[in-house]
Design goal:
It is built from 9 helices and 20 strands. The chain is of the alpha+beta class and 448 residues long. A hairpin with a 2-residue loop joins strand 16 and strand 17. It is extended, with a radius of gyration of 40 Å. The chain starts with a helix and ends with a strand.
């Protein structure tokens, strides 16, 4: 019995001791401060990486672009050589090989033909209308090169209220390089301007930048980025024809058109004739001819004089007029200015010698024995010329291997030279009995 009970206990159902244990997995608590710190660090690193990547791209992109797709440098601006307007007398057949009797016969025949033509001329109002329409057409074409340039300056009035003062003048388009449009203008009207605006014939206004100025003539070249100008305006811009000749005496008495602001207001036009081109401006290292006309205009006139072929003969500037002709339109001749404009457009500094001079006349050469060359009338103080020992009364006959026969030759040679360049100057100096030849070495300065 006892055995059966023990057996029953052994065979009976019995729960193991581990049944009461329940396993529960508990998540680790989140450290919010640590998580926030890591998030901020990650975001900051991402921002820094993006900034470094952008900066690297901005620095390397132009370099890589220029390396892979090299951009061609704009060609330097060069103006065509001077050409003279074809005049009626230029059309006469050369009679240099005719005998004197044949020449006389030819002249009499021409005079007879001219007289017959004049006898048959009977101009009507329609003829005069056609003539002036022709002049208007030339002026209209020339006006495509003319722009209005406005300089603006901000000031304060007596009550400290801001206001803007403006000054206007006419300029001419001298070249279109493909990237920039170059405009010649009188810089006196723009002196101190904070902004320079150019108004084209289409009415579009574009901001311009000063390229270079010449303190002798008070002229400057400004430029407008072609990308800032609309396609429609670009199509109407025509660079001025600078191939006219202002030094030929044959232009005296010839018709001329003043385009720009000859009356002091924009887009005004006047007709007249050239009355003289014998007046000269002897400036430091410069030499210009003044063209005078019979056109009555404003003392503040600006713009250009063009001939009937549309060629520019001069840049209007009345500041050099004498007291008795202040209102007659005058201009600085284009022949002497052309190289100066070309150099300013290419932003090349001009060499500085520091001389004033004139030509040696035939009379002085024949009667006094003065050799031909650039006669120096005055030397600028503390100039390279003074440092080299050049004096008033000296006659420069050569610069380097270039012969100098006139003061104009000296000016033309100086335009080709560069600042800090050393040159040998040959000159003639008057001695006790005759002129003596000397040679001096000059280190040129920079014209400011």
């Amino acid at each position: 019995m006892e055995q059966s009970k023990e057996t029953g206990q052994e065979n009976g159902m019995k729960k193991p001791d581990s049944d009461f244990i329940t396993e529960k997995i508990k998540q680790r608590p989140i450290d919010k401060k640590k998580l926030l710190r890591r998030t901020i660090i990650t975001a900051a690193m991402a921002v820094i990486f993006a900034l470094v990547a952008c900066l690297t791209f901005l620095i390397l992109e132009p370099v890589l672009s220029n390396w892979l797709y090299p951009e061609e440098e704009p060609a330097p601006i060069e103006f065509p050589a001077e050409t003279e307007e074809m005049l009626p007398e230029d059309m006469i057949v050369d009679d240099s090989e005719m005998t004197q009797a044949e020449q006389q016969t030819e002249i009499e025949l021409q005079d007879e033909q001219i007289a017959q033509v004049l006898d048959n001329i009977n101009l009507s109002s329609d003829d005069y209308s056609a003539m002036y329409n022709g002049l208007a057409d030339v002026a209209k074409e020339a006006a495509k090169s003319v722009v209005t340039v406005t300089g603006s300056v901000s000031n304060l009035d007596w009550f400290n209220d801001p206001y803007e003062s403006k000054d206007q003048t006419s300029g001419i388009v001298v070249a279109n390089q493909g990237k920039e449009i170059f405009i010649l203008v009188n810089y006196e009207k723009l002196k101190g301007a904070e902004t320079i605006m150019v108004t084209f014939s289409s009415g579009e206004q574009v901001q311009a930048q000063l390229k270079q100025q010449d303190n002798n003539t008070k002229l400057a070249v400004i430029s407008v980025a072609e990308s800032d100008v609309s396609k429609e305006t670009l199509e109407g811009i025509v660079p001025a024809n600078l191939t006219g000749s202002s030094s030929n005496n044959a232009i005296i008495g010839r018709p001329v058109i003043a385009v720009g602001s000859p009356l002091g207001t924009s887009d005004s036009i006047c007709y007249g004739i050239i009355t003289s081109n014998n007046t000269t401006l002897n400036m430091m290292d410069s030499y210009y001819k003044i063209l005078t006309t019979d056109i009555y205009g404003s003392q503040d006139a600006s713009g250009v004089l063009v001939n009937l072929s549309g060629q520019v003969l001069g840049i209007i500037d009345n500041t050099h007029n004498s007291e008795d002709m202040k209102n007659l339109v005058s201009a600085i001749g284009i022949t002497e200015l052309r190289r100066k404009i070309e150099k300013m457009s290419n932003e090349k500094e001009q060499a500085y010698l520091g001389t004033y001079g004139t030509d040696v006349t035939i009379d002085a050469n024949e009667r006094l024995g003065v050799p031909y060359g650039a006669y120096i009338t005055e030397i600028e103080m503390d100039s390279p010329a003074m440092a080299a020992g050049i004096q008033s009364g000296d006659i420069i006959t050569a610069i380097g291997d270039k012969e100098i026969k006139t003061y104009g030759d000296l000016v033309g040679t100086m335009i080709e030279l560069l600042p800090d360049e050393s040159v040998a100057i040959t000159l003639m100096r008057q001695g006790p009995e005759e002129y003596l030849q000397m040679e001096v070495n000059v280190t040129l300065g920079k014209l400011k």
